[in-house]
Design brief:
The complex is a heterodimer of chains A (120) and B (111).
Chain A: E1 3-7, E2 11-12, E3 18-25, E4 34-41, E5 48-54, E6 59-61, E7 69-74, E8 79-84, E9 93-101, E10 109-110, E11 114-118
Parallel strand pairs in A: 2-11
Antiparallel strand pairs in A: 1-3, 3-8, 4-5, 4-9, 5-6, 7-8, 9-10, 9-11
Chain B: E1 9-12, E2 18-23, E3 36-40, E4 47-50, E5 64-69, E6 72-77, E7 86-94, E8 99-102, E9 106-110
Parallel strand pairs in B: 1-9
Antiparallel strand pairs in B: 2-6, 3-4, 3-7, 5-6, 7-8, 7-9
């Protein structure tokens, strides 16, 4: 059974850096084709794709947020980490991690999400 | 503003059929990238509903169907049930953005 779970701070201050961890089970990011992505959803708004890392450690970022995002993986811990620098209140959202199995381009399994509020 | 365009809301009575459209462009749906659909029940994470334009994952009822043509796609839900009340999102890949893109979401209300 594939599961993913997001963890991180519920509250960050403006200008701070957010670090989120996705801990997963049921698959390995060292296996060919496996990818983990981050997606966010502001309250009452639409989903927005942020970043993806694949089994070969290739990384892909949203064009609009590329300068602020860093995605990395720790295969031994079954974890993917996303950092977002210079947080702003507009970054308040539920952050999800999800799996993709290449060459598919859809998210077949999602975590429950973690709400991050940006406020002073 | 989302890259893929969906109607904000649709509604239907129990037992009826509704469709939700998803319009893209030549850099995503029109570039032959598949369209996928997710269902998000209130307060929960999105769940894969349709993949590869028209395929249902295991456990998804055949009341849900998808299609794609040109730069657009559609999700149809027949035999509406109260439990179908949710937000629905389409998703594809965009080669000019080199990334995954979503629609703005459609809220389905079962009257």
């Amino acid at each position: 059974q594939v599961t993913l779970r997001e963890s991180g701070p519920a509250l960050v201050k403006p200008t701070q850096t957010l670090t989120l961890t996705c801990t997963f089970s049921g698959f390995s990011l060292s296996n060919n084709g496996m990818c983990v992505s981050w997606i966010r959803q502001p309250p009452g708004k639409a989903l927005e794709w942020l970043a993806l890392i694949d089994w070969d450690d290739d990384k892909y970022y949203s064009t609009s947020l590329k300068t602020r995002l860093t995605i990395s993986k720790d295969t031994s811990k079954n974890q993917v980490v996303l950092t977002v620098t210079n947080m702003d209140p507009v970054d308040t959202a539920t952050y999800y991690c999800a799996r993709i199995r290449h060459p598919n381009r859809y998210f077949d399994t999602w975590g429950q999400g973690t709400l991050v509020t940006v406020s002073s | 503003q989302s890259v893929l365009t969906q109607p904000p809301s649709v509604s239907g009575a129990p037992g009826q059929r509704v469709t939700i459209s998803c319009t893209g462009s030549s850099s995503n749906i029109g570039a032959h990238y598949d369209v996928h659909w997710y269902q998000q029940l209130p307060g929960t994470a999105p769940k894969l509903l349709i993949y590869g334009n028209s395929n249902r994952p295991s456990g998804i009822p055949d009341r849900f169907s998808g299609s794609k043509s040109g730069t657009s796609a559609s999700l149809a839900i027949s035999g509406l049930q109260a439990e179908d009340e949710a937000d629905y999102y389409c998703q594809s890949y965009d080669n000019s953005l080199s990334g995954w893109v979503f629609g703005g979401g459609t809220k389905l209300t079962v009257l």
